Amino acid sequence: MHSLKKLNRITAVFGLIAVLLAGGCGVSYEEDLPDPGQVGSEELITVGFSQVGAESDWRKANTESMQSAFTRERGYELIFEDAQQKQSNQITAIRTFIQREVDYIVLAPVTEDGWDTVLAEARDANIPVIIVDRQVAVKDKDLFTCWIGSDFELEAKKACTWLEDYCRMKRISANDIYIADIQGTIGSSAQIGRSKGLKEAVRKNGWHLVDEVPGEYTQAKGREATARLLQSHKDLNVIYCENDNEAFGALEAIEAAGRKAGGNLRAGEIMVISFDGVSELAIDDLRNDSISCIGECNPLHGPRVRKVIDDLENNIVPEKYEYVDEDIFSAFEDLTEITVEGKNYPVKIIGK
Ligand code: GZL
Fold this sequence. Notes:
By secondary structure, the protein is α/β, with parallel strands linked by helices. The chain folds into two domains: 3-7 and 14-149 and 299-324, Response regulator (Rossmann fold, 3-Layer(aba) Sandwich), CATH 3.40.50; 152-297 and 329-349, Rossmann fold (3-Layer(aba) Sandwich), CATH 3.40.50.2300. The protein has eleven helices and 14 strands. The N and C termini lie far apart (52 Å). Bound molecules: beta-D-galactofuranose. Beta-D-galactofuranose is lined by residues 55-56, 58-59, 133-134, 150, 188, 190, 217, 243, 275-276, 297.
């Protein structure tokens, strides 16, 4: 795709010059010709990447993974656009990529809906679109070449199974669990999957889901939401944060309220469960029992996306959906394995 399209463009330019010179119009395009030194830049595969934003440690790790995968030394030119968590900015970025005739578009969609029109424009421009991280809910699945990301509902099932097993081992009755969900960006696949998984576990176990509040995957919102939850739900004893940055904010609010985060619910501690596990701070919070369990969310999509593009360059059709591998972390040493839908998953114990 890339080399043929570029070759066509170069041929067209030289063809135009030949016609004009032959016609004696005397107009010289010499100065417009790329000098030999620049011809190399024509060999680069151009990738337009529309990223959600920089709202979390996970997002920054994901951006870094993409930027280190697509370097000029490896033969790529990455055009990076940060959307500040606004879909309108992502749509504008995609249209800019189309105008610049990039070879590939990579989209990390902020939410699932609203992509049909702009992805159809990319298809009409013959530019393959690779979706990473969250998914797009489009009528025509041919509007994107493939998707790489996480099974968010499985992440939730693992974390909730961990809580279920923890309660059983500590002889905590399900009826004594009062849990609140600090949700991620509403309408994003990660929020939809993590919220759905929790709701199913609440129904199955008979826990009390006292509230669901938006946290937008940020520390500030996590702090604000937790402060309100502690005020309005005196029996709250588990906070389910849909990412680590919300959890960091929750820990600040728990301390500000004169409470203690931890797994000793009988002593009045408030358990914090989270997702991502990409920062040292999150792992340290596991070590000091501030966060009890983290469902890993793997941000390292760069090499996988590069492999897809290399395959496409060689006319190899990629898998339509590629799920990344993920673990579950805890510092509670007595619970080393969980079983979800008949499959066993080791719990990675974070040593003190
Ligand atoms: C999950 C990703 C989520 C992370 C958050 O793949 O979409 O968005 O869990 C991030 O940290 O903001």
